[in-house]
Amino acid sequence: MERRKPTLSESESILTVRDLSVEFDVEGGRIRAVDRVSFDLRAGEVLGVVGESGCGKSVTALSLVRLLPSPPGHVVGGSVTFEGRDLLRIPIAELRAIRGKRISMIFQDPMSALSPLHRIGDQLVEAQQLHGEIPTRRAWEVGTEWLAKVGIPDPAERMNAWPHELSGGMRQRVMIAMALMLKPDVVIADEPTTALDVTIQAQIFELMRVLKDAKTAAMLITHDMSAIWEMCDRALVMYAGQIVESAPVRELFQNPRHPYTAGLLRSMPRGPRTGRRLETIPGQVPSPRDYPKGCRFADRCPHVWSLCREHEPELFAVDEEHRAACHLVPEGRKP
Amino acid sequence: MSAPLLEVKGLTTWYPIRRGVWSRTVRHVQALTDVSLAIQEGETLGIVGESGCGKTTLGRTLVGLERPMAGAMLLRGAVLPAGIRPAALQRQVQMIFQDPAAALNPRLTVLDLLTEALAYHGLLTESREATALQLLRDVGLDGAALHRYPFEFSGGQRQRISVARALALRPSLIICDEAVSALDVSVQAQVLNLLMDLKEKYRLSYLFISHDINVVRFIADRVAVMYLGRIVEEGPTEDVIGSPAHPYTQALISAVPAVGREASARRPLGGELPSPSRPPAGCPFHPRCPSAMEICKTAAPPTISKGAQKVSCHLYSRDLSSQ
After folding, report:
1. Residues A160, B123: Cα–Cα separation, whole Å
2. ipTM above 0.85?
3. What is the pLDDT of residue A177?
4. Binary contact (A200, B272; C-beta < 8 A)
5. Is A167's Cβ below 8 Å from some Cβ in B?
6. In which region does residue A132 sit, left (phi positive, over 0), alpha (psi from -120 to 50) or beta (all else)?
7. What homologous superfamily is domain A13-239 in, according to CATH?
8. A276 in B contact zone (CB under 8 Å)
């Protein structure tokens, strides 16, 4: 796979997220799960969103298309602009016409996204007919073609199968076929391969590269840094509900500027055995019930100084494409 | 060389599939077929393979949770009697599971969890509190944990408690079944370091079962690769992962996303895992194997030594190379 440098014309944002904040009802109040998240998804790129459990990456993804169950979740601020319209504010009927057709989703667990009561073929037909007038016979053919495209053997036969008759890898392929079938402009994939074996994951990744040829923009949400390396052009790193770093993937891996990103990369076991211990990030993610006043990573950071505990760092520009929310950046220091 | 800590020969564990009013056995899920391996004192043996390859059944059989249909198990050279879980095995071999939330009884405090087994075996020498406290220190937790319940801890801390519980009986071998797979990277690194420290401190051996090859490469001295209930390749970790011999191992390793490598270096494996209740004839890997030959469809491959590696594949048969 070639890593493309985005040119100016490609850099236009297709999905523009500004200051997105999401809160959850909890016993005795509210916690903020996503805090003033801003980013652009550019046409034709694969944007990775990486972070550990509870960092807010999935909540961000669900909130973009208003799929976050509410209550307990509430989008309390920000905007998500797609073709000049704010998805967070348009009438739900208008959103439904966009969701599935123009912006589609792939989730970790395909069994919960497919209806167990309908055959695969019927679900593929229904998805098409929801978004346009197409004769059932034609829609059935299109569905069969897509099953073949995502590498399902005997697609004509599988159209008549029930979801439970397929393996996990097959079901995930059906989900991908369904997500791509209507040629969306944006695909949001939340841990699409986390439940799958590596050889199946490799097949799915190959498939998702088809997206690139189709000029579809994609967001890949994952906890797996190596998946980011393999699949993405750019990546956002999230920590405690905030974006702490954003950069083109190579730059992120070779020149991480936030101590959390650097720590994550160093704590991954990789390469030949050395017998040495892994580097770790000491401590734990702070509870959203009491985030510290300054930087949320301060208590775990090897570079912490007084400023970090006083002032929350903004996303400082390292260069045009690379930003990190760390007070080391203006000082010209690296973690 | 002295006898290995634990050795198994020809271990076979099949689960019957019963059908009909008389519950006749129609087929078997062939979870483990003719598995032989040895774990030396102080050694970590990694077991890798994909879902359904039998790696969990192997762990459960070794710890005595499954009864094998055939095969012998030897502990320090002494044959273990077949049948229910022998007491010797109970104390010598302990297990850590993937999901500590499910493995730890939610209604017991940490104190009870850590001392229950010792009390059962009549091995409590000090007070329960003192014993539990020592175990907690071993895994990097403090006494504040003693009277709390599992739900009060994070995933990483719960896995530390599982490790402490496994240590309580001073076992020689701990079977770690996907023990760090559910943990976030930064927490995973902490638990892996802990396992390495404990191994040195108590001269433990581990059977480390994982689907994550990067993790196994980090922790294991030797590694065995399983496919459809059989070991297809085994050897020193760097040999097997650095220069895999079996076509399945090659495909498996090339499928692992690796930072720094281009995706084009991949050799994606086609097809899907066949059902372990109907494994293909001959070599079980032949329908997906890029190097399959006629003989692979009919004859089970022999196990061949290739340097320090052992590989079950017709490609390395001597009579083939002489042709």
Report:
1. 60
2. no
3. 87
4. yes
5. yes
6. left
7. P-loop containing nucleotide triphosphate hydrolases (3.40.50.300)
8. no
